[in-house]
Write a structure and sequence with these properties.
alpha+beta; 3 helices; 52 residues; two-stranded antiparallel ribbon
């Protein structure tokens, strides 16, 4: 995730082929605007594998 935050100019979060959130990396990783985005980052923070 650190690489994505530094290298990307845009982050797109998809769930089952549907875009649920898009934005600048700093914005997304600091505070996603959707519940799905928050769930995704929480899973990553807990060290669990994220499966779509």
């Amino acid at each position: 995730m650190a690489f994505a935050r530094e290298a990307a100019s845009r982050v797109i979060l998809m769930d089952r082929g549907v875009v649920v959130e898009t934005g600048e990396p700093e914005q997304f990783f600091s505070g996603p605007g959707t519940e799905r985005g928050r769930q995704f980052l929480q899973r990553f923070a807990e060290g669990r594998r994220v499966v779509a």
